[in-house]
Design goal:
The chain is an alpha/beta fold. It is built from eleven helices and five strands. It has a five-stranded parallel beta sheet, sandwiched between helices. α1 runs parallel beside α3, α7 runs parallel beside α8 and α9 crosses α10. It binds shikimate-3-phosphate. Shikimate-3-phosphate binds next to loops.
Amino acid sequence: MNHLDELRVRLSVCDEQILDCLIKRNMIVEDIMKYKESHNMQIIQPEQEKRQTQKLMENLNGVRHTKEILDIFDRITYNSKKIQARHLFNYNIVMIGFMGSGKSTISDYLSTMFAMETVEMDQIIAKREGMSIPDIFEVYGEEYFRNLETNLLIEMQAKSNVVISCGGGVPMRERNVVEMKKNGRVVLLTAKPETIYNRVKDSHDRPLLENNKNIPYIAELMEKRRVKYEAAADIIIETDGKDELEICEELVQKLLEMDEKCI
Ligand code: S3P
C-alpha cells in the first residue's frame, strides 16, 4: 500500500469513529429527553447549552482548525435540537391569538430552541404577493387576503414539525380552524388589552388597528373574537408578565399533557 492509500485508510477509520460517536450521541440526546419527560423536568434549558459551548471552547483552546470544528459542533447542536423536536412534536404547532399577543416572538423563540422551521403567514403572503399586508387590504380587499390565508394553511398540511404563526384573523373562519387542525395542535396566546396596546402602539402594519390604536377598541375587538379563538385552541397560554422561556416551557408542558391524555 502506498502512503496515500494508507492515509485514506486512516481517514476512513476516523469517519467510522465519528459515525459511531454520532450514533451514540444521538441516542443520549433521546435518553435525556425521555428522562426530562419522565421526571417532569423543565424541557427547555438554555443554560445547559451555554455550559456545553463553554466546555467546548475550553477544549478547543489552541487546537488547529478551530473555526471548522466549531462549524461542525454548531451543526451537531442544531441537529440535536431537531431530534428533540421530532421526539416531542410529530405535528405542526399552530400559533393563534390577537394582534400583538406574541405569536411571532414565541414562534421565533420556539424555533430557535428546537431548530424548527417557522412559517410566518403574514410574511409569506406579503412576499408572494409582492406587497405589504396594508397594501393587499387596500388593493384587493380583506376577503382576498383571507382566501390567501386559507390556501396557505392547506399548503402547510404537507409539512410537519413546523411552527406556524398565524395572522390574528385566521381562526375567525371556521374552514381555517378545520384546516389547521388536520396536522397541527393549536396554541392560543392571550394578553390583556393594555399589554396588546403597548406592544402594537408604534407599528403601522396592521390595517385593522391603524386608526383605532386605543385600549377600548382593542378590548372590544378582542372580546368579539374571544369565543372563536377559544373554540379553535387546543391549549391556551396567558402571556402577561411572563418571559419567552416561561411561555415556551408552559407551551411544551401543556402539549405533552395533551399527548398523555390522547394515549
Ligand atoms: C389581522 C392580524 C394581522 C394581519 C392582518 C389582519 C387580524 O396579523 O394578518 O393585519 O385580522 O387580526 P398579526 O396578528 O400577526 O398582527
